[in-house]
């Protein structure tokens, strides 16, 4: 599997850090001069961009939050006049009002370079037929990876999201070799193939590049087995650029962050203290080359850790651990911190359950209750009550051992949980409605 840009992806750490510092200083100047939010921020803390002389000095600058971006809605954080902006996207807005992001022509060029790196690392080359099953629209997923695939010289099918039977028909007829989607949608496609009696091995699929939502190692195994492909994880967020912030190589042990364009830090969420490599915390990103929408120390809300150990693939870029969850999708149930992905891990290890689940949170009196709805196979759903009872108890026990919390489990009929064409909705929080 090839490395798209050897010069930058395999640079010596010394050279890389020098480049980061130069690019950081240019970014700070641009932001200070052109974005009133950053101008005020620097004035408030009594610093000017020249005061940041090393990468470590960056820790003296306060964080930028999603809230800051929302206050600047829609164009307040742009560092260039609108006439230089050639593309506008917006974040999904799942955690509030969307944030609007802009790209100059130069930004689009960098973006396609970075998504080309992601695709190449996941095994896509110019002989591939790449089916993009993300929604084309304000969401950055489809346009971002589409441009990278074209840049590689692959044949790109802009299939868009949804219409699963048609997606599979396209895979058959157009001989798709690479699927780009969310991991949950890839599983849904595998299921639809079974219903359509299409044997995945009869297709030409080789690789899958999945991202935009958290997924587990077990889910990777399941997707790889069911679709007969090699699946890699890629990460990004609209505020920073979209997909193309980081991607896995064939080693599949962490996602290489494209550090020549983004400077990562991991902090302790409560105190803001920068954590040493290896410790888990919230990822903070600073853009180093963005023209239209530079961000300094942006709080991503995503939980990960950084690993600077050399990777056998040859890239020198730091690796971030698979994003396990967000600081804000962490559920606090009777004082216990719970990430939906922990529940997914447990379910994947239990025979007879399907990889589809939903968490229903409710409040009974003053107590929070968590009910986990788990889809089961037909054989189990129509089996005798005793067998079902045993399965419920098994899942409840395993969940309690993992989470330290008792929750009720309800087995639901195959295909009764809503399938998403984009990011899966795992949590229904009824506490908010009361
Ligand atoms: O989801 C960009 C993207 C598109 C990435 C396609 C990869 C592939 P947003 O809609 O702004 O942008 O959502 C960003 O999604 O902060 C994470 O919480 C989550 N996320 C993205 N990729 C991953 C991943 C796109 N690989 C938010 N694993 C981020 C876990 C992910 N979470």
Quick overview of this protein structure:
The chain has 434 residues and is an alpha/beta fold. The chain is 32% helix and 24% strand. The mean pLDDT is 94.
Set out the fold topology.
Blueprint (H helix, E strand, L loop, with lengths): L5 H4 L3 H22 L1 H10 L20 H6 L15 E4 L9 E4 L1 H17 L7 E4 L7 H13 L2 E3 L6 H11 L3 E4 L1 H13 L11 E5 L5 H11 L2 E8 L4 E7 L6 E3 L4 E6 L13 E7 L10 E7 L1 E2 L11 E2 L10 E3 L2 E3 L1 H9 L4 E12 L2 E10 L1 H4 L3 H19 L4 E5 L14 E3 L5
Parallel strand pairs: 3-4, 3-5, 5-6, 6-7, 17-20, 18-19
Antiparallel strand pairs: 1-2, 7-8, 8-9, 9-14, 10-11, 11-12, 13-14, 15-16, 17-18
Helix pairs in contact: 2-3, 5-6, 7-8, 8-9, 10-12
Description:
The structure is a single chain. This protein is of the alpha/beta class and 434 residues long. It folds into two domains: 1-327, Rossmann fold (3-Layer(aba) Sandwich); 331-433, ANL, C-terminal domain (GMP Synthetase, Chain A, domain 3, 2-Layer Sandwich), CATH 3.30.300. Helices cover 32% and strands 24% of the residues. The protein has twelve helices and 20 strands. It has helices spanning 6-9, 13-34, 36-45, 66-71, 105-121, 140-152, 164-174, 183-195, 217-227, 340-348, 378-381, 385-403; strands at 87-90, 100-103, 129-132, 155-157, 178-181, 207-211, 230-237, 242-248, 255-257, 262-267, 281-287, 298-304, 306-307, 319-320, 331-333, 336-338, 353-364, 367-376, 408-412, 427-429. The strands form five sheets. A nine-stranded mixed β-sheet has the order 4-3-5-6-7-8-9-14-13. Helix 7 crosses helix 8. The chain is globular, with a radius of gyration of 22 Å. It starts with 5 loop residues before the first helix and ends in a 5-residue tail after the last strand. The model has no long low-confidence stretch (mean pLDDT 94). Residues 91-92, 139-141, 211-214, 233-238, 242-243, 300, 302, 323, 326 line the site of 5'-O-[hydroxy(phenylacetyl)phosphoryl]adenosine.
